[in-house]
Amino acid sequence: MLSSLKPIFLREFNSKRTIETYNYSVDSFLLFVQTKQVTTIEGLTISLLKEWRNQLTISYASRTKVIAVKSFLKWLYTNDYTQKNLGKCIKMVPKPDPLVDRICGKTDIDTLFRIAETTHKETALMLKILFWTGIRLSACCTILTKHITMGESISIKVLSKGNCWRTVHICKVKADTVRDQIQSIHTKYLFAGRYRNTPISRSAGHRRIKKIANKAELHHVTAHVYRHCFATFSLAAGAPLTAVRDAMNHKSISTTSLYLHSVEKDVSTYI
Q1: CATH 1.10.443.10 location in the chain
Q2: Residue 1: count of CB within 10 angstroms of its CB
Q3: Non-local CB neighbours of 107 within 8 Å, separated by 6+ positions
Q4: Cα angle: 30, vertex 34, 37; to 5 degrees
């Protein structure tokens, strides 16, 4: 059974993030082939693999899925489960459109917030924090309630890329709209997982965000789009480039400068 080989394959990796990502990606592949009544290695055909590849959307998430599945299929070959590396027949998904085409306008953001508020308030809070602070989903999922400081504004200590701690802020006007909700949360993590003292996983957070995006028929929206929007909206509102760089924890200001093109396209879209 293909599904029984997945846990053995995942033992090849040490990174928790890689294991989580590959587990999710290979799972989605196995679910697809199961809908075709294929559960064994022998049932994997080139035409089936191409069919799976062709139904993927053009996105970075799809590119990650292809990388994971190709790795899984290569592992099957190198460990003598198959006589051919079937992963070679799977073409990589093209890179998505340029950044400027993946930014949401103010109307879209308002729609996403409204749908989230009426369907799942905890997800609405997650979306607002992502959009208002520009932090990555992994940092958002692991916010400890003890690291939230309430004042006129709200300060949140987050664990950023590279395992470094930094503090992000939510201004008073926005803070006042979520203050009561945050103060009502008494779990260890702001976004608790299945158990009260564990954080929500990144993949679970991603699924929540995609569910809201799909309801809004904004299928391109992922957690990282909110980070892009934070940068674009901040620059459109007149924030200095260096301030946005620091808020996003970019090492190089040239990375932050990419968002200037979005602003130049149509400032009125973001303010």
Answers
A1: 100-269
A2: 9
A3: none
A4: 150
Distance between CA atoms of residues 44 and 86, nearest Å: 8
Contact assessment for residue 184 and residue 178, using Cβ atoms and an 8 Å cutoff? no
- Integer Cα distance of 100 and 235 in angstroms: 14
The three-state secondary structure class of 55 is coil
Q: For the domain covering 100-269, report its CATH number.
A: 1.10.443.10
Cα separation, 224 vs 67, in Å, equals 19
Q: What stretch(es) of the chain map to CATH 1.10.150.130?
A: 2-89
* Structural tokens at position 154: 């709200």
Which residues on neighbouring strands pair with residue 150, listed in sequence order? 154
Tokens (6 digits) for 252: 């190089």
Q: Please choose, from the candidates 133, 100, 132, the residue with its C-alpha nearest in 3D space to the C-alpha of residue 269.
A: 100
Low-confidence ranges of the chain (pLDDT < 50): 267, 270-271
Sheet holding 154-160, edge to edge: 148-150, 154-160, 164-170
Per the CB < 8 A criterion, the answer to whether 216 and 156 are in contact is no
Residues in Cβ contact with 122 at an 8 Å cutoff, skipping those fewer than 6 apart: 191
166 backbone dihedrals φ, ψ, rounded to 5°: -150, 170
CATH code of the domain made up of 2-89: 1.10.150.130
> Which residues lie across from 167 on neighbouring strands?
157
pTM of the model: 0.63
Cβ-Cβ contacts under 8 Å for 249 (sequence gap 6 or more): 160, 161, 164, 166
pLDDT at residue 271, as a whole number: 46
pLDDT for 264 equals: 56
Q: List the structure tokens of 54.
A: 């062709």
Rg (CA), the chain: 21
